[in-house]
């Protein structure tokens, strides 16, 4: 009880100094809990959606997926004849059966040819209005479509694009473009996570989405009273024979949730990873806080020891303070986490993914995880300072000798740090020298972890040298004040090292990712310059296939010398060694593709792969199966028959574009795949006539104006799009890393604030002998700047080493160019100085307000 009373008294006596450490715990716990609440809420939203929209039993064509995403490579959904509905209706236990038709391989545009597809990445669904939809949608304006001239849409899409009844919109599918006027608007009765839904009458939906009447993509079956879904499935399956896919509502919902859950899991674990980094940075802040508090209470601890307190009691006293800090920070963090989740939901709403706070899900495990993490991390971080406090000798403390300096521990720390750093460097070397990416990635991970830990451990040793160098370059220009700031930073290398290490971690990751991202862009740009021999690339940024009408518009554009189509087909390949490789892809293109994309070969000529009944394979596949020029490969196309194709070329694996592709001509593939099963184009290459590039570019964009789902890019556009895509990904990562950097800044603030308190008497003496308030504040600001620059120097150097090693590993995948983004690196280094200035504002202000006489009188 005495230990707890002492801990409580000390905690509240230093509540101001504890506040920033509590904020670090709060932020880390809040990010973890916010991530868990946000992803749990999304799961709840999708669970409700899938449960509400799934009929008791759903019948679909065999080619349909389990998730209801029925669109195939030819842009049309797999269908079944209309008489299936009658057969299902006659099955025992069926109350009702209704045929439906829908597709997600569509684009819907307004009268100005602007896409109405969700910007959040949600699907665009066009189908017939049916009884199952009527359960989850309520018509709030107008009426359901009754003929081909009418279409209905969901209320969210109508509001977003300011559409109303009577406006004309167009549906673009593989069959063609159909225009209709809005007849009604329907509102979701459950939360819509971001889909755009459009309804046609049944006959029109069949004609527009499939190209034929009398067919359906699904049959929604409702069970009679007392009949379970499983029993209904058995009865329907017996009635149909096994020619169709039959699923219960739970099976359909589970399949949909599994697909969504994969994306949510990736997002959740990525965000938790960044929260873990913030926790790691917070550890340094807490260690520094308790180390300095222990040092400041040396005399107090000595008195406690002198009157009978044991080492264990002193140790427990410090750990009890840490426990209290962890509990307070964690409780506040859990509450803040719910707020972060709500904020994320609002942010997603701005991008088009609607999440209702009515579905806010706070599982009991979330606060428990937050509390456990926060408390355990805080107590572990305080263990070393607590152990050091327990070692304080009563007589040494009463003489105010300070906390014991363990020279032996310093030597051990230096040796351990050097060994860990050396092991990390060796791991990075092995990664860069690896022959296989899988082996190299393991060495890279080991090298990153060991070098990071090594730099953290050896930080105090590095601080002595690097701070002097930085002081010479940065601080000496400020005269005596600059030299005093340098000496203050050098006074306690362990403290400076720990404070700098907190900032080092976040900046190391920033530098590493910047190097990797820049190298990826530079490598891809080099490959484009070397390989791509066409003027324009036409493709969809959302992954949609290119409709025949759009391809024809490209071919009809004036000024074109050639247009090359490019398709991807699924196939199983059987090689002469008797082995069958399932799930392979064959890239079918026009023969001009060999000119449009120059791909290096290790045997044969790529142009020969486009001869009749010929193909190319990539180097790794050829080596694995012993293929040479002239070898026969049996290719069983998924939607066609089997073909015996002759290997005419073997392409190099040392490429970025189309790495691992196997080519054949479209005319060859067309012999074995029926026209109605032939997939649509993935992309189209277009080359203008000599000297007409600029005019052709303008004409091509004009020709595809009615197809906003496709982008027309010349090589410059393509490089910029690639750079923007990687840049957006890096910006997202930098945003998540900002949490760790904020915690690191709090660490600098806390270190300086406690350092000012620790040096109260010294500051009073300096003021007494003539140091002005401005000079004092400048000294503290410069100390903060040099600590921040020290952490930045370590982090940027370490991160560039990681990034360069990662690029060497990626070179095995064709990324051959190493590019250091010096503007980014230099900008981050300079920004670190401003971070140091910002962190010093409050400590410097407080130091400047000290009363000189009171400061001198401080014990």
From TrEMBL:
Alphabetically ordered keywords of this record: Cell membrane, Membrane, Transmembrane, Transmembrane helix
Parts of the chain that traverse the membrane: 269-295, 318-342, 362-384, 411-430, 442-475, 496-521, 732-757, 782-802, 822-845
Membrane topology recorded in Swiss-Prot or TrEMBL: Multi-pass membrane protein
Subcellular location as annotated: Cell membrane
Superkingdom of the source species: Bacteria
One Pfam family, short name: MacB_PCD
PANTHER family linked to this entry: ABC TRANSPORTER PERMEASE YTRF, MEMBRANE COMPONENT OF TRANSPORTER-RELATED
Family: Belongs to the ABC-4 integral membrane protein family.
UniProt name for this protein: FtsX-like permease family protein
Source species taxonomy: Bacteria, Bacillati, Actinomycetota, Actinomycetes, Kitasatosporales
């Amino acid at each position: 009880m005495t230990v707890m009373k002492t801990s409580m008294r000390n905690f509240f006596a230093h509540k101001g100094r504890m506040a920033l450490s509590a904020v670090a715990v709060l932020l880390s716990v809040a990010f973890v809990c916010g991530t868990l609440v946000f992803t749990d809420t999304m799961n709840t939203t999708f669970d409700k959606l899938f449960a509400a929209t799934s009929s008791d039993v759903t019948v679909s064509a065999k080619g349909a997926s389990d998730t209801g995403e029925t669109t195939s490579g030819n842009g049309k959904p797999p269908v079944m004849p209309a008489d299936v509905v009658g057969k299902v209706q006659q099955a025992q236990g069926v109350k009702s059966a209704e045929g439906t038709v829908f597709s997600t391989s569509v684009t819907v545009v307004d009268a100005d040819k602007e896409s109405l597809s969700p910007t959040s990445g949600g699907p665009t669904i066009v189908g017939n209005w049916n009884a199952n939809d009527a359960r989850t949608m309520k018509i709030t304006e107008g009426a359901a479509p009754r003929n081909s001239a009418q279409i209905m849409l969901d209320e969210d899409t109508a509001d977003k694009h300011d559409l109303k009844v009577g406006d004309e919109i167009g549906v673009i599918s593989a069959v063609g473009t159909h225009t209709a006027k809005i007849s009604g608007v329907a509102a979701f009765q459950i939360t819509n996570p971001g889909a755009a839904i459009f309804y046609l009458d049944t006959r029109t939906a069949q004609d527009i989405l499939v190209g034929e009447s009398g067919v359906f993509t699904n049959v929604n079956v409702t069970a009679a009273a007392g009949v379970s879904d499983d029993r209904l499935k058995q009865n329907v399956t017996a009635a149909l024979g096994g020619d169709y896919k039959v699923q219960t509502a739970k099976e359909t919902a589970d399949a949909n949730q599994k697909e969504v859950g994969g994306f949510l899991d990736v997002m959740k674990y990525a965000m938790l990873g960044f929260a873990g980094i913030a926790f790691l940075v917070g550890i340094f802040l807490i260690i520094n806080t308790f180390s300095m508090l222990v040092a400041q209470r040396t005399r107090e601890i000595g008195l406690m020891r002198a009157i009978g307190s044991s080492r264990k009691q002193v140790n427990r006293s410090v750990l009890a303070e840490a426990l209290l800090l962890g509990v307070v920070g964690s409780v506040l963090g859990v509450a803040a986490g719910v707020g972060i989740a709500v904020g994320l939901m609002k942010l997603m709403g701005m991008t088009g993914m609607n999440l209702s706070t009515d579905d806010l899900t706070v599982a009991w495990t979330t606060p428990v995880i937050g509390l456990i993490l926060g408390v355990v991390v805080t107590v572990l971080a305080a263990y070393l300072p607590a152990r050091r406090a327990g070692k304080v000798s009563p007589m040494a403390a009463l003489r105010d000798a300070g906390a014991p300096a363990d020279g032996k521990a310093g030597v051990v720390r230096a040796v351990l740090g050097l060994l860990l750093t050396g092991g990390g460097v060796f791991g990075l070397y092995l990664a860069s020298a690896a022959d296989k990416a899988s082996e190299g990635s393991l060495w890279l991970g080991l090298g990153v972890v060991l070098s990071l830990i090594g730099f953290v451990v050896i930080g105090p040793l590095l601080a002595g040298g690097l701070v002097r160098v930085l002081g010479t370059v940065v601080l000496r220009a400020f005269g005596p004040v600059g030299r005093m700031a340098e000496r203050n930073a050098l006074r306690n290398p362990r403290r400076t090292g720990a404070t700098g290490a907190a900032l080092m971690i976040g900046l190391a990751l920033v530098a590493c990712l910047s190097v990797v991202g820049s190298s990826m862009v530079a490598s891809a740009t080099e490959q484009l310059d070397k390989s791509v021999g066409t003027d324009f690339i036409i493709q969809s940024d959302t992954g949609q296939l290119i409709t025949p009408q759009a391809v024809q518009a490209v071919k009809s554009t004036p000024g074109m010398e050639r247009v090359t189509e490019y398709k991807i087909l699924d196939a199983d390949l059987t090689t002469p060694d008797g082995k069958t490789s399932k799930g392979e892809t064959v890239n079918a293109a026009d023969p001009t593709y060999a000119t449009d994309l120059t791909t290096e070969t290790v045997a044969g000529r790529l142009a020969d792969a486009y001869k009749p009944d010929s193909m190319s394979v990539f180097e790794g596949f050829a080596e694995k199966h012993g293929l040479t020029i002239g070898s026969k490969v049996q290719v069983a196309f998924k939607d066609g028959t089997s073909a015996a194709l002759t290997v005419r070329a073997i392409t190099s694996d040392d490429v970025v574009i189309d790495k691992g592709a196997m080519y054949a001509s479209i005319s060859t593939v067309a012999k074995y795949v029926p026209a109605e099963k032939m997939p649509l184009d993935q992309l189209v290459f277009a080359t203008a006539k000599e000297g007409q590039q600029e005019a052709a570019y303008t004409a091509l964009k004009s020709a595809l104006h009615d197809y906003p789902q496709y982008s027309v890019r010349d090589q410059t556009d393509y490089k910029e799009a690639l750079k923007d895509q990687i840049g957006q990904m890096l910006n997202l990562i930098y945003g998540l890393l900002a949490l760790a950097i904020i915690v690191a800044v709090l660490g600098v603030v806390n270190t300086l604030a406690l350092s000012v308190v620790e040096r109260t008497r010294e500051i009073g003496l300096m003021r007494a002998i003539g140091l002005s308030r401005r000079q004092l504040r400048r000294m503290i600001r410069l100390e903060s700047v040099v600590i921040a620059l020290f952490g930045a120097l370590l982090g940027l150097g370490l991160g560039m080493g990681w990034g360069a090693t990662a690029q060497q590993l990626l070179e095995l995948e064709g990324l051959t160019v190493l590019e250091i983004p010096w503007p980014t690196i230099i900008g981050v280094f300079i920004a670190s100085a401003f971070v140091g200035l910002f962190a010093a504002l409050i400590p410097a202000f407080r130091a400047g307000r000290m009363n000189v006489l009171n400061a001198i009188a401080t014990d």
